[in-house]
Write a structure and sequence with these properties.
By secondary structure, the chain is an alpha+beta fold. The protein is 28% helix and 27% strand. Strands 1-2-3-4 form a four-stranded antiparallel beta sheet, with no helix packed on it. It has a four-stranded antiparallel beta sheet with strand order 5-6-7-8, with helices on one face. Strands 9-10-11-12 form a four-stranded antiparallel beta sheet, with no helix packed on it. The protein starts with a helix and ends with a helix.
Amino acid sequence: MAIQDRVARFAHIWLEVVAVCLCCVSAGLAQTETRQLTLEWIFGPEGRSVASVPATAWLDDGSLMMLDNRRPLGERTFERLDPATGRREPAVDAARALTDLRTTLPDSTPQTLAWPIAFDGAAQHALYVFKGDIFVLELTNSRFRRLTNTPAEETSAGFSPNGRRVSYVRANDLYCYDLDAGREIRITRDGSDTLLNGTLSWVYWEEVFGR
């Protein structure tokens, strides 16, 4: 088939797709044009769901981790999407994970499994901070592992590139936790109100890093 013919065929198919989409949109508008738009609807569950999109994170193997916030609360869980096939399958048992977390934080357990700070590249762990302490959700068994339990708050948590360590800041000093060895390693010891290790002052957060 000549190049011109291929281009013409592609253009024809594309126009058909656009026409179908326009028809669907028109039908939807026709059904909702008499609906009253109110602040209650906009900020209510239905209005928020219209603009909601799934939270996503790409993994090392090219698959996509996602959390579809448009689903009912009881059905929300992390799913792993294969872009080649479009297949979605659960990556964790959310109900079991929340039950396990409730044994550690009985008064602060969320109703649903929230999107974490980060996943490791192999999708073995998800990173959380609850009440100023670091937790890791082990996706393979749907259980939470508490890494820190200190009066001082831990911040700026993140996984190492290989996913085997978790870094964080406590009292302006930098620490990391070795997940294999199960121990904390202190990296700096000179942190103070004027010397910040592993974190940034508010000016850099606001004007540089946050952008």
